[in-house]
């Protein structure tokens, strides 16, 4: 099972000081957080994609390429790649390039985003959001798997004899997660292709997440990719920790109360009771995270949101120390217990390459037979 962090890259004033970091400071902080993630033994760093204030990560592959040069083991991912407003050809080329630079330590998460005005900025109609996601990904999937593509659709110029360059590393496309909070069509899309399904899991109660994950698992099996238990599931989560839970609540409350994603709404106590947000001790984080398996089943990737709402970099790095030293080692051990042998590990470039080679060998054996 993989553990890591994902960031939305918001530039938010620190409510305890009133100071707002500069864009440069926030970008550099995201890099420092990624480097810290590798240092403390996490597996994944994922960045969002936004094209509007108060967010800064408008070019995920630029940031991930820079981080790739400074890390050795960390899997570099996105917590949203906007499949609706990005050109599939550019996505294909950008992430294949990143694959080569990072020696395969790359995957990505497709999403539609949550900022409506982005659509017209890129010449798209938000009312076509689902249709854009379906058509654009169908093209992207082919661009990575076919050396020469002839294609015609509704939303972009036709392609004739087109080859996306560079080709994916070792002929193996980056693994794709499809991220969604509430859209069953996206769970269906992930299942159809046999890709991963990532549920954001930071706003909604457990029964909603359970329904979305079960839909994906059942449709994954329907399309013949394996049993429902073999489907590839990822979950998000939010935590804030101090060794003493009362200290965690007291310190995090002013950030929660004005946070862009949930400030000025339910109380901290109500939100932690009704959603996966955990504010407390490392042991409380462990217990609540382990409970995700009760409604999502055995899954492959757990990412935590930790660097938002104006939290200073120093505080976030302290959180990562606690996560890497006290939380994740226990989660690895506990999630491994009673995990059925038929539940696959999270896909990596190495495992995908091994599968591709075996499939080629099997086909060759079939021809010889």
UniProtKB/TrEMBL annotation:
Source organism, top-level taxon: Bacteria
Cellular compartments per GO CC: cytosol
Alphabetically ordered keywords of this record: Monooxygenase, Oxidoreductase
Region (Disordered): 339-369
Domain Luciferase-like: 1-295
GO molecular function: monooxygenase activity; oxidoreductase activity, acting on paired donors, with incorporation or reduction of molecular oxygen
Biased amino acid composition, Basic and acidic residues: 356-369
Keyword Oxidoreductase in annotation: yes
Protein name: 5,10-methylene tetrahydromethanopterin reductase
Organism name: Streptomyces mutabilis
